[in-house]
Each structure stands twice: as C-alpha cells, then as structure tokens.
What we know:
The structure holds two protein chains of two kinds.
Chain A: H1 12-33, H2 41-60, H3 64-93, H4 100-125, H5 132-147, H6 154-170, H7 177-200
Chain B: H1 4-14, H2 20-23, H3 25-35, E1 40-41, H4 42-49, H5 53-65, E2 69-76, E3 79-86, H6 88-110
Antiparallel strand pairs in B: 1-3, 2-3
Amino acid sequence: MEPVRLVSPTEPPALHDRAMDNLRYIRETMERATPFTGISGWGEIAIGVTALIASFIAAQQLTFKGWFAVWVAEGLISLLIAGWSMDRKARAVHMALVSGPGRKAVFSLAPPLIAGALLTLVLAQAGAASAIPGMWLLLYGTGVITGGMFSVRAVPAMGVCFMLLGAVAVFTDASYNNWFMAAGFGGLHVLFGAIIVRKYGG
Amino acid sequence: MPEPRAQNAKQKSAAPNLDRLIHERLRLGIISALAANESLTFSDLKSLMNTTDGNLSVHARKLEEAGYISCSKYFEGRLPKTEYKLTAAGRHALENYLNHMESLIKQMRNA
C-alpha cells in the first residue's frame, strides 16, 4: 500500500472542492477546444459567394434605394447561412455544455452591426451615401476582430483585412465602391473561409 | 503518471463507481476536448493539453484500449497525421463522470 495522500474520505469539503474543480476543468477544456471548429469555413465561403453575386446585382442598380435593398437582402441571407452552418457544427458536438464561443461571437458582432445600421440611416439622410460601403467594411471588421479574439487566428486576421479595406474605401472615389464591396464581403470571406476549411477542417 | 494505485484505493472507498480511467487529469482533458469536437489531431490535442508527445500518446492509448476514443492514421501530403474521435462509449463515460461529480457536490451541500 502506498502512503496516504492529501485528500482522504474523512475530509468531505476537500472532496467537494475536488469535484467542483473537476467540473470546472471539463468545462474550461471544452471551451478551449471549441474554437478549433467553432466557425464554419464552408459557411464563410457560401457567404462570400452570395456576396459576390450581390455586388454584381447591386452594381446594376440605378438608384441608391435599389443598391441598398440588394445589400440588405444579402445581409439577411448571410445571417441565415451563418446561423445554419454554426448550428450544424454545434449539433455535431451535441452536448449542452458548449455554448460559450458561439455566444461570445454573436455578442461581440452585434454592437458594431447595430452602430452600422444607425450610421447608414444618418449618412443616407445627410446625402453622404457614398461613404456607406467603407463604413460597413470598417465596422464589420471591428466586429470580426473582437468576436474572433477567442477563435482561431484566421478569424481576427480577416477582421483586420476588412478594416484595412474599409479604411482605403472611405478615402477613395465612390465609383470604386462596388469593387470594395465585392473584394471585402465576397473576396475576403471566400479566402478566409477556404483557409479555415484547409487548416481546421470544415 | 501520478501513482494510480494509491489514487484508486482512495477513490474506491470514497466513490465506489468512479470511472478511474477518465479521472486522471490528462485523460479527462482529452475526453473533454474531444467531446467538443468531431475530431482532433494528435498535434491539436498536444497544444490544447500543453503536454509532451510521450505523455499524450500513453494516455491516449489507454483511452483507446478502453474503447472511449477511436484513432485513425492518415497522410496529409507527406505528413503522417493521427486523428482521434470520441466514441459513443466515451461520451457515455464522460456523462456518467459529470453526473457523478454533480451528485458528489449535492451530497456535500445537503450534509
């Protein structure tokens, strides 16, 4: 027999603490392990492809209203794709313990998107609609950086690219706006989606 | 490895049905990490658990022998990769372990 170790059955509080500690360890390990597949690369590619189609259709629009409607529709489609693809990934895990990373991503993406929606109205009313694409790219980038802090490195890196593109877009002639939209919401999504699929599997 | 026999003897008296196989820290970590993912490679697990090749492979093999995880090897280009998945038995074992810990905590609260 080995010598008696620290925790013995006659010390209930220690056993209790150990049980709590074990539960905490399991939860933390699962949360730490989740970012490996938390974000769906295929979902991002799909969003990028629909955004490319949307920027093509939007470029044909003669009025700002028409252009704007196309992008609102594309925004809703992207949300659906993102929700569906993340749900599929979460389901593959099917354990109620994991909800941290997904919630974190949603909560950090929502504030800049709400700010963006309000600024869109302000800029449109002020007759500065041409600044909207750059502002969208900038704010979406900030949301992706903060939301991706807990995820794989490719995610915040994508956020930085969005911000850089947005920064260039706001200071560039408005005639290039559709190209910036295509390069950002289309190109960057497809590119980083593909990186995530390759490096982190799906 | 921390003296398994001493731990076993102690746990037996305190908690008769405790699954000793996943009570060990690193093994519990492997099971937990795999429960949150469809699959993880050896190097994913190594960086997650912050451990050495030798240590991880010893514990992973124990879990594999118990049928808690499954292991498959393949090549990605020229690099050999080892991929681990949690089996149904492994998930069941983790759920049992969680229930066990919860009931231990409840007991102590009521006492």
